[in-house]
Amino acid sequence: MNPVVLSPDMAALGIALGLLFSLVCYLTTNLSPGGMITPGWLALTLVEDLRLASMVLGVTVLTYLSTRLLQGAVILYGKRLFAAVVMCGVLLQATLYMVLRNQFPMLFSHQTLGYIVPGLIAYQLVRQPPRATLVSTATVTLGAYAVLAVGALLDVLPRA
Q1: For 155, which DSSP code?
Q2: Whole-structure pTM over 0.85, yes or no?
């Protein structure tokens, strides 16, 4: 499976679509779909490399479980909760990067936002009903992905 190379314009468009759809989701349902930038970034990873999206899903689950364990030992709420969840996600993602970077160098070639996305999703999973968060995140992500995929198929999106 060869990863797709995205142009900076297409990446910006993907993030913008995700932001727009996230805002509509939040305003209509009062649910955050894993954070405002998350669905656009996930849609881009689905276009670019499915392995990266599955890796983010795995790190998100580990981050959520770690946060739940940490909440049993430490009082976490508000800004402390946000900082703890995002840092946990970053540490897990960085650890995974250190372990896998030699075997899969292209998987991490330009994944800057990917370090915080698992923490953002896990934070919303802790704050909101998990099922509703997963449904809203998946729906908004798939909406942004559909627009990107159709745009790419119709050749109306910027190329790399």
Answers
A1: T
A2: yes
Separation CA 158–CA 151 (nearest Å): 9
Shortest CA distance to 149 belongs to which of 51, 50, 3, 47? 47
* Torsion sign, CA atoms 123, 129, 131, 132: negative
Helices 130-153 and 8-29, axial angle in degrees (round to 10): 140
The torsion angles phi and psi of 30, rounded to 5 degrees, stand at 60, 25
Long-range contacts at 71-79 (CB < 8 A, ≥ 24 apart): 71/126
Q: Where are the domains of the chain?
A: 8-153
In contact, 107 and 51? CB cutoff 8 Å: yes
pLDDT per residue over 74-130, tens digit each?
A: 998 999 999 999 999 999 988 888 887 777 665 555 566 678 899 999 999 999 999
SS3 assignment, position 8 = helix
At 5, give phi and psi (nearest 5°): -95, 120
Model confidence pLDDT, tens digit, residues 123-158? 999 999 999 999 999 999 999 999 998 988 888 877
DSSP string, 72-122: HHS---HHHHHHHHHHHHHHHHHHHHHHHTTT-GGGGTT-TGGGTHHHHHH
